[in-house]
């Protein structure tokens, strides 16, 4: 690539204005960039059409929306409660136990496992930007059909990268168990640890596109059956949408509650450690809310708008629990978050009640 081409790549965005002083070679590369952007848009449109046609009829009731069913699972406990015999053994303070034992028994330490779980957590956060708030269990989520290419790309990337992350953990697993055996001594129990064969099947990610339209042919065949199928499809859609609303509300309740909790003093009045990510996560949620709010939750939108006003401009450094922290600001923000959480809790209760009614 020439320096002119590289300059165009670094400074030109598809469809944007071009500087008349640019070299002809830069202009030529801009033309290439525009052509690439057009080809990409056509490719994305084709992908959307292919998914929509493959899943089912997307009629007026879907209004440009589609359902993606996602399943992301897998973990191994890093600690477990002590058995009665183990508690008795701990009381004797055996010299062979080289690790600290509290109320639970630590099972293992493994850098590769921590990296795997961080990968899963980070990828869940990335999916949440497409209106998929939780994928810790198998669930169907409504999303905009225009998000199909991006979700598909992220899903394919996740499938491939998860395989490598799991493989690294599996390779390190025997060594982690050996270290645990040395640290735990008489408290080591091989039955506390999954076999490699089980671990390989434990971590899974899957997704598929779905729709719940009713074929028009059924209407011509039997109007009564068509009407019944249509009512059933509409109920399924209503339940999925209600579930999406509840999950989105639950997400912001957890974020706001977490910030309020971190600013609430301990029983003795001592300040808890504050993590800037508590505010950053709320700001990130607010920034991506429009994309997440695929079910057009007007009530939550109003609360998020108010929350945006509260979070905007907060000096995170002054919320620190250290000497530089502003106690008055901490209390003000805590009170604001508690009030916001109260309003959001009410929305969550009403959303959860709607989900239960639809399931009855």
Walkthrough of the structure:
With 360 residues, the protein is mainly α. It has three domains: 3-44, no CATH class; 64-211, no CATH class; 212-360, Four Helix Bundle (Hemerythrin (Met), subunit A) (Up-down Bundle). Helices cover 61% and strands 8% of the residues. It contains twelve helices and five strands. The strands form two sheets. A three-stranded antiparallel sheet has the order 4-1-5. A two-stranded antiparallel sheet has the order 2-3. The radius of gyration is 26 Å and the shape is globular. The chain starts with a helix and ends with a helix.
Outline the secondary-structure elements.
Layout: H1 3-11, H2 24-55, E1 65-73, E2 79-81, H3 84-91, E3 104-106, H4 111-128, E4 139-144, H5 148-184, H6 196-202, E5 204-210, H7 216-221, H8 223-262, H9 277-287, H10 289-292, H11 298-311, H12 327-359
Antiparallel strand pairs: 1-4, 1-5, 2-3
Short description:
The chain is mostly helical and 360 residues long. It is built from 12 helices and 5 strands.
Task: Give a quick set of tags describing it.
360 residues, mainly alpha, three-stranded antiparallel sheet, 3 domains, Four Helix Bundle (Hemerythrin (Met), subunit A), two-stranded antiparallel sheet, 8% strand
- CATH fold node name of the largest domain: Four Helix Bundle (Hemerythrin (Met), subunit A)
Tally of individual domains: 3
The whole-number mean of residue pLDDT values reads 81
Residue stretches low in confidence (pLDDT < 50, at least 5 long) are 57-62
How would the global form be characterised? globular
Q: How is the biggest beta sheet arranged? A: 3 strands, antiparallel
Strand proportion, as a percent range, falls in: 5-15%
């Amino acid at each position: 690539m020439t320096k002119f081409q590289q300059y165009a790549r670094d400074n030109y965005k598809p469809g944007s204005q071009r500087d008349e002083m640019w070299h002809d070679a830069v202009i030529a590369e801009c033309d290439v960039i525009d052509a690439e952007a057009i080809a990409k848009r056509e490719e994305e449109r084709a992908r959307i059409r292919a998914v929509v046609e493959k899943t089912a009829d997307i009629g007026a009731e879907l209004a440009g929306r589609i359902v993606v069913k996602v399943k992301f699972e897998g973990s191994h406990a890093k600690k477990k409660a002590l058995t009665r015999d183990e508690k008795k053994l701990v009381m004797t303070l055996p010299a062979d136990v080289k690790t600290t034992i509290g109320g639970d028994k630590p099972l293992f330490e493994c850098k590769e496992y921590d990296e795997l779980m961080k990968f899963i957590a980070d990828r869940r956060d990335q999916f949440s930007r497409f209106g998929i708030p939780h994928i810790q269990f198998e669930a169907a989520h409504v999303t905009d059909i225009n998000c199909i290419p991006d979700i598909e790309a992220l899903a394919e990337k996740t499938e491939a990268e998860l395989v490598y992350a799991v493989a690294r953990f599996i390779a390190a697993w025997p060594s982690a168990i050996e270290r645990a055996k040395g640290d735990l001594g008489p408290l080591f129990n091989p039955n506390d640890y999954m076999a490699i064969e089980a671990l390989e099947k434990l971590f899974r990610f899957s997704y598929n596109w779905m729709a719940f339209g009713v074929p028009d042919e059924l209407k011509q065949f039997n109007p009564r059956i068509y009407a019944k199928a249509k009512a059933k499809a509409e109920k399924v859609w209503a339940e999925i949408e209600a579930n999406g609303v509840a999950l989105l509300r639950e997400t912001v309740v957890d974020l706001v509650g977490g910030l309020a909790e971190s600013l609430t003093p301990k029983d003795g009045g001592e300040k808890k450690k504050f993590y800037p990510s508590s505010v950053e996560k709320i700001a990130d949620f607010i920034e991506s809310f429009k994309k997440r709010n695929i079910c057009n939750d007007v009530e939550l939108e109003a609360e998020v708008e108010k929350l945006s006003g509260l979070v905007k401009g907060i000096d995170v450094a002054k919320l620190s629990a250290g000497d530089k922290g502003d106690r008055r600001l901490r209390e003000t923000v805590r009170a604001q978050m508690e009030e916001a959480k109260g309003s959001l809790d009410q929305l969550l209760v009403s959303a959860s009640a709607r989900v239960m009614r639809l399931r009855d």
